[in-house]
């Protein structure tokens, strides 16, 4: 097997880094867990791992949105739309009912990693900086969200 073939076959793995922190402990912890769940996606248990991941995405988005809304973040609505677009994209990907293959699992993993990094390092970080500039008391801990929002409906949970 050539080096190129080995590289193609190697799973696409991105580990959490300290540099992904946005400075809000709860959000950072949830982001970190998302990376762990993306890493755990595998063909053998794909139904279960995808479901667990999406379930946690819904919880995380809800918690993050609650923190933004309750702290009066000016770009809250815009941020909400980004989460919704993500949900629609994932729903599209999962909705075409193709059989799972190693390639398809890796495609999903690659998309999730790229989206997460881009989103965290741009939009979530913007919230983290804004939040720090507000000098208010530490962010309240978001309560587990009721699953009645857009994503919950999108993913068939409610
Ligand atoms: Fe976000």
UniProtKB/TrEMBL annotation:
Chain ranges of the Hemerythrin-like domain: 23-124
GO molecular function: metal ion binding; oxygen carrier activity
Record's keyword annotation contains Zinc-finger: no
Keywords: Iron, Metal-binding, Oxygen transport, Transport
Xref: NCBIfam families: bact_hemeryth (NF033749), hemeryth_dom (TIGR02481)
Family the UniProt entry places it in: Belongs to the hemerythrin family.
The protein, known as: Hemerythrin-like domain-containing protein
Annotated organism of origin: Rhodoferax lacus
């Amino acid at each position: 097997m050539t080096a190129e073939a080995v590289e193609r076959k190697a799973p696409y793995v991105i580990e959490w880094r300290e540099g992904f922190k946005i400075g809000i402990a709860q959000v950072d912890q949830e982001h970190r867990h998302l990376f762990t769940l993306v890493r755990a996606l595998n063909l053998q248990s794909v139904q279960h791992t995808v479901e667990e991941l999406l379930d946690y995405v819904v919880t995380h988005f809800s918690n993050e949105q609650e923190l933004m809304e309750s702290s009066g973040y000016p770009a809250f609505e815009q941020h909400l739309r980004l989460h919704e677009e993500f949900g629609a994209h994932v729903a599209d990907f999962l909705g075409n009912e193709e059989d799972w293959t190693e390639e398809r699992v890796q495609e999903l993993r690659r998309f999730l990693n790229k989206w997460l990094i881009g989103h965290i390092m741009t939009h979530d970080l913007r919230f983290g900086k804004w939040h720090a500039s507000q000098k208010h008391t530490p962010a309240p801990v978001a309560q587990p969200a009721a699953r009645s929002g857009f994503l919950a409906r999108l993913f068939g949970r409610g």
